[in-house]
Design goal:
This protein is α/β, with parallel strands linked by helices. The chain is 34% helix and 19% strand. The chain is built from four helices and five strands. The chain has helices at residues 6-12, 40-55, 71-76, 103-114; strands spanning 2-3, 30-35, 61-66, 84-88, 95-98. The radius of gyration is 13 Å and the shape is globular.
């Protein structure tokens, strides 16, 4: 999973320096994991995200944002606790979930928010 920087975030997700209103730059739905290396629940979430990335390869893009290395992005989304997961549909507004999500929770969210089946 690729880690996003401010620059790559502007290119792949949303250029907040050019647009006031949300304008998604991607072509597929996206999940962004806001995490920190010292965070225990974040480390527990990592293998779950690896499974999700494998299962939905080519259907959903999955990225990570290190809140310690990219505080500007954490501040942009008002991240106060980690892990925080941002679900970004191709059309419509993104949805944030705070805290650890079990594997089944990702399948449910991807189905409900993106209309994509896990099979």
């Amino acid at each position: 999973m690729e880690k996003l920087t401010v620059q790559s975030f502007k290119e792949k997700v949303f250029d907040y320096t050019k647009h006031q209103e949300w304008k998604y730059e991607g072509t597929r739905p996206m999940i962004i994991d806001f995490y920190a290396d010292w965070c225990g629940p974040c480390r527990m979430l990592s293998p779950v995200l690896e499974e999700v990335a494998s299962q939905y390869k080519g259907k959903v893009d999955i990225y990570k944002v290190d809140t310690e290395a990219q505080p500007e992005l954490a501040q942009l989304f008002g991240i106060r606790s980690i892990p925080s997961i941002l679900f970004v549909p191709v059309k419509g507004e993104p949805a944030m979930n705070n805290g650890f999500i079990p594997r089944e929770g990702f399948d449910r969210a991807i189905s409900e928010l993106f209309g994509i089946s896990g099979t």
